[in-house]
């Protein structure tokens, strides 16, 4: 915590300094909380500064922004505001308590004090506050011994219903565990297993699960977290099903989604197509291994999403040459284009891509030597 105090002092004229100056000179009771306090204690950089204000956070944010002159966005329904300045974000929230009407749903929110606010949080390491108010600047509020847990490298929930109230914390616990190389505290681990067993994850909306997955895959430690998702039975995936997971966040993301039940997450049409292609990636690699002719490579790979061919080079480096050859084939100008199909009376539909692919394969195999020959061939197709 010394480090936090001194880093707050060192960063002269920094955004943090200005935030602190503003609150110290104001009448507000305000606190640095959450990730910022945790990361400073761990000696890690944090891009966000989280401030909790006892009172109207939006009004405080507007006044603060007169000093720091960033871009402010207020969220009236949540009583929060964000200021973006110098590639940093200052998030201000009103201290609040939450009541969960039913498990796994968003809570009802009431105004409160900092200690009550800390009570509603997920883990002890995120439930530490440091006052930036005039009368008690630097005072630490650590009601759950989060600082000690940081030292002991433990992820610990604050109360036994935590995972039931908010099952996204199951994902969060594993994300923090692996990000920091911490352990789940014994009771926390047991209660997490119980929540999983009681089907709490299934109670979350697909959108909330997808948000958590996006956060997991934004971290370097995504591989360990995915293994944990399997190990703890959060997703019904066996560990060996993950053995070919590509070593890049975005490809691994699709790979994992391809192991989940279809339509369980609200994906865009494009994402669904990519995930469907990933479902066949094992089979695709077997076929690719056997493919010898250039045209075979093209027939196999041209219908699938680019993300899949990229992933293959990561999963099986020995197939890299074949993917390179395929990419070179894509750069060849085809004799026939969609424009020709229209000109020769083909109705625009799904068949277009198929026909173009077929003719291009003949071109690759040198069975069609020129555009003229290709057009003659096209005419014979129309007659059929
Ligand atoms: N929080 C919580 N329960 C959640 C989500 C968030 O209690 N399901 C609280 C935690 O106290 C957390 C704070 O809200 O510290 C801010 O959440 P978030 O921005 O997601 O996390 P950070 O702590 O900023 O950590 P990071 O962004 O580094 O993961």
Structural class assignment: alpha+beta
Shape: elongated
Largest sheet strand order: 3-4-5-2-1-8-9
CATH superfamily membership of the largest domain, which one?
Beta Polymerase, domain 2
**Gyration radius over CA:** 28 Å
Largest sheet: 7 strands, mixed
The CATH topology assignment of the largest domain is: Beta Polymerase, domain 2
Which class of the largest domain in CATH terms?
Answer: Alpha Beta
Low-pLDDT stretches: 8-13
Description of the structure:
By secondary structure, the chain is an alpha+beta fold. The chain has four domains: 2-152, Beta Polymerase, domain 2, CATH 3.30.460.10; 154-235, Hydrophobic Seed Protein (Orthogonal Bundle), CATH 1.10.110; 238-321, no CATH class; 338-383, no CATH class. It has helices at 2-10, 15-25, 34-42, 57-68, 114-119, 146-152, 162-165, 168-180, 186-197, 206-217, 222-231, 249-257, 269-279, 281-290, 294-301, 306-315, 320-330, 338-343, 351-364, 371-383, and strands at 29-33, 48-54, 71-75, 80-85, 88-94, 96-99, 108-111, 129-131, 140-141, 154-155, 183-184. A seven-stranded mixed β-sheet has the order 3-4-5-2-1-8-9. The protein has a two-stranded antiparallel ribbon with strand order 6-7. The chain has a two-stranded parallel ribbon with strand order 10-11. A hairpin with an 8-residue loop joins strand 6 and strand 7 (108-111). Helix 8 (168-180) packs parallel to helix 10 (206-217) and helix 8 crosses helix 11 (222-231). The termini are far apart. The relative contact order is 0.06.
């Amino acid at each position: 915590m010394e480090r936090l105090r001194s880093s707050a002092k060192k960063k002269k004229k920094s955004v943090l300094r200005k935030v602190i100056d503003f609150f110290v000179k104001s009448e507000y009771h305000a606190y640095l909380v959450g990730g910022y306090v945790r990361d400073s204690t761990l000696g890690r950089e944090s891009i966000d500064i989280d401030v909790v204000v006892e009172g109207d956070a939006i009004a405080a944010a507007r006044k603060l922004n007169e000093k720091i002159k960033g871009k402010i966005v207020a969220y009236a329904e949540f009583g929060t505001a964000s200021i973006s300045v110098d590639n940093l974000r200052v998030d201000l929230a009103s201290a609040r308590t939450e009541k969960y009407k039913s498990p796994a749903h968003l809570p009802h929110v009431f105004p409160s004090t900092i200690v009550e606010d800390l009570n509603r949080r997920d883990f002890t390491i995120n439930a530490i506050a440091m006052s930036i108010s005039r009368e008690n600047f630097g005072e630490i509020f650590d009601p759950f011994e989060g600082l000690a847990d940081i030292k002991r490298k433990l992820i610990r929930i604050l109360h036994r219903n935590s995972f039931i109230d908010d099952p996204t914390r199951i994902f969060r616990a594993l994300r923090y565990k692996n990000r920091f190389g911490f352990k789940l505290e014994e009771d926390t681990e047991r209660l997490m297993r119980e929540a999983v067993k009681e089907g709490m994850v299934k109670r979350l909306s697909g959108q909330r699960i997808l948000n958590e997955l996006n956060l997991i895959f934004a971290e370097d430690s995504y591989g360990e977290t995915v293994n944990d998702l399997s190990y703890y039975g959060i997703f019904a995936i066996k560990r060996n099903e993950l053995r070919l997971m590509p070593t890049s966040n975005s490809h691994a993301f699709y790979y994992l989604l391809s192991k989940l039940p279809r339509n369980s997450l609200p994906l865009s049409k494009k994402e669904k197509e990519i995930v469907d292609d990933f479902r066949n990636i094992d089979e695709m690699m077997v076929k690719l291994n056997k493919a010898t002719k250039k045209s075979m490579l093209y027939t196999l790979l041209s219908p699938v999403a680019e993300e899949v061919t990229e992933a293959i080079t990561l999963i099986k480096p020995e197939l890299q040459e074949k993917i390179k050859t395929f990419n070179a084939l894509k750069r060849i100008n085809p004799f026939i284009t969609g424009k020709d199909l229209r000109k020769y009376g083909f109705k625009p539909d799904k068949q277009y891509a198929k026909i173009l692919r077929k003719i291009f394969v003949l071109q690759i195999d040198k069975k069609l030597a020129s555009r003229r020959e290709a057009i003659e061939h096209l005419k014979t197709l129309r007659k059929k």
